[in-house]
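Morning run. Coffee first, then this:
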Amino acid sequence: MATPAITEHLPIYICEMMERLGIEQGGGVMPRLSLSYATALHRCEACPAKPACRDWLNSLPASVPLPPRFCPNADIFFELQVDQPGPDHLVAKNSPLK
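And here it is:
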């Protein structure tokens, strides 16, 4: 019987990234957004750019409009910014369509 592989637990920064981007973390319970949240979590877990992500988070203010270009979740984070409920999310405030 083979012993299960021990996986190294690396930090993930998805919660901090979402907070910086103004994305409500509880939005993942909404059926239409749950797959996006789950995909973003898995991408973050597998991301090879964790040190760059930590450096990026450490170097910026508490609120930013866009994730870094190297982030594999940039597309999902943008969609979540646009799709999250409520009138006060960042994309709506900064939108030229308003």
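The longest helix spans residues 31-46. Good start to the day.
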